[in-house]
Amino acid sequence: MKTVNLSLSKSSFIRGLQCHKSLYLYKHQPELRDEISALQQALFQSGTDVGIYAQKLFPGGVAIPFGKGTLSKQLSLTKSEIEKGTNTLYEAAFVHDNVFVKVDILHKGKMGWELYEVKSSTGEKDVYLDDVAIQYYVLKGAGLPVSKAFLVHINNKYVRKGKIDVKKLFEIIDCTKRVKNKQDSVKKELAKQKKMLEGDIPEIDIGKYCSAPYNCDFQGHCWQHIPENSIFDLRGHGVNKFDLYKQGIVHLKDVPADSLNRNQGIQANATLKKKNVIDKDKIKKFIESLWYPLYFLDFETFDCAIPPYDNLRPYQKVPFQYSLDYLEKKGGKIGHYEYLAPPNTDPREEIITRLIKEIPQDACVLAYNMSFEKGVLKQLAEWFPKYKGKIDRIISNIRDLAAPFRSKDYYHYKMNGSFSMKIVLPILVPELSYDDMDIGEGGMASEAYLKMCQSPDSTENEQIRKALLEYCGLDTLGMVRILEKLGKAC
């Protein structure tokens, strides 16, 4: 019989606050966890990077190294540094009541020790206070005289001008009073979690807490009883899916028709009858709203918590790549432009000057889900006002290829309510698919580019470059082929 470690940590306590069953599975059956995606791993790494950068707020401190199986060593090092008179510690380790925590920044101020919890987000959330509260509970219980507790998060109004001003990059919120007020509830919740872990698995059904405040990594296990074509496949607002679920309504066929909005009704009807919806008149009207020359535009962007360039805010999207296909006339030969910025260069002005040259001022520009491309262009106009007139002209000529799919004027029953190009393209054009590509969606593209910026391996970088060009190129070629299919449909 395997031994189960029932001690808690900051993260496992937060997991238990969200769902006791999730915590139980995490401790007793961790092999049932969903696999962590590359994008999730990148988000975790981003949080770690921001935490390290925030140490600049209190420079000269001592870091307590993290390592698997060295909890006692971390505790010993922390105790030793405090006894030596060290005023600032990074990742200081404490244990109390069988709960282990590491503090992002521990600083000795005028009134005593201050704990700082660093978040890579741009605002305050209730769950962050719980995060600080459990640390405060452990530190006080371990005998450390804590005078203040702070939450540190990114200030998204900060604009980089030259060297980063770390004090302006971060916003520091004193949450001492609110954290103190949570101490009784923390103690009670810990007792509940410990008692629960010693018993049988809690009988907790699925609910909104499966994805709030965080996506639970046991959804693959807990949701396996949900069939295909369920109420949870319905897209959009309107029907309360969990209310229906509690009433025993799970399959689409059992949903009252009057509880669905127009698009959900189309989705449910098409799915159940395995019948496609094609409104030829509306599709024809959409196609007639386009003109030639016709350009197909797709951007790839990245964003960083810590702005890498001047005149940039945290998490502001920076275009680093585009693909541009074009047709001079209907049925004409496809032309192609593309650009991928060299690593570690500010690509913004180069991108807009190229696009202005390549896209004729009177051309119709097609984007898939045009709000994204419009947003990128509007931001470029703000960064470079001298090009604003020409950029605005391009923006005014943009049309949205996603429109017929969003409105369900063209709906295939296999689309599962989605109008994402990653779903639409392989259904309409089976020979084109993202499945076997090294990069298969936008988040992967941005992570790949950032990896290329950090990697000294030229061979690896060339592989990434080829994969990025292939992916972005498929987006615009896919748009060309989708438009052809729409034309044939009407």
Number of domains: 3
Radius of gyration: 27 Å
Task: List how many beta strands DSSP finds.
Answer: 14
Helix content: 40-55%
Percent range for β-strand residues: 15-25%
The CATH class assignment of the largest domain is Alpha Beta
Q: Quick one: overall form?
A: globular
Helical element count?
Answer: 19
Structural class label: alpha/beta
The N- and C-terminal alpha carbons lie at a distance of 65 Å
Give the full name of the CATH homologous superfamily of the largest domain. Ribonuclease H-like superfamily/Ribonuclease H
Catalogue the unreliable spans: none
Main sheet: strands, sense, barrel: 7 strands, mixed
User: pLDDT average, as an integer?
Assistant: 95
The CATH topology of the largest domain turns out to be Nucleotidyltransferase, domain 5
* CATH architecture grouping of the largest domain: 2-Layer Sandwich
Could you give a short description of this structure?
This protein has 490 residues and is α/β, with parallel strands linked by helices. It is 43% helix and 17% strand.
Description:
With 490 residues, the protein is of the alpha/beta class. It has 3 domains: 8-197, Lambda Exonuclease, Chain A (Alpha-Beta Complex); 226-275; 282-489, Ribonuclease H-like superfamily/Ribonuclease H (Nucleotidyltransferase, domain 5, 2-Layer Sandwich). The protein is 43% helix and 17% strand. It contains 19 helices and 14 strands. The chain has helices at 10-18, 20-28, 38-53, 71-84, 126-141, 166-169, 176-181, 183-197, 219-222, 241-246, 262-273, 280-288, 348-358, 370-383, 388-396, 403-406, 421-428, 442-454, 458-489; strands at residues 8-9, 62-63, 88-96, 99-109, 112-118, 146-154, 170-174, 277-278, 294-302, 318-327, 335-340, 364-367, 398-400, 410-411. The strands form 3 sheets. Strands 1, 2, 3, 4, 5, 6 and 7 form a 7-stranded mixed β-sheet that branches. The protein has a 5-stranded mixed β-sheet with strand order 11-10-9-12-13, sandwiched between helices. The chain has a two-stranded antiparallel sheet with strand order 8-14. A hairpin with a 2-residue loop joins strand 4 and strand 5 (112-118). Helix 1 crosses helix 2. The longest helix is centred in the C-terminal third of the chain and has 32 residues, at 458-489. The N and C termini lie far apart (65 Å). The model has no long low-confidence stretch (mean pLDDT 95).
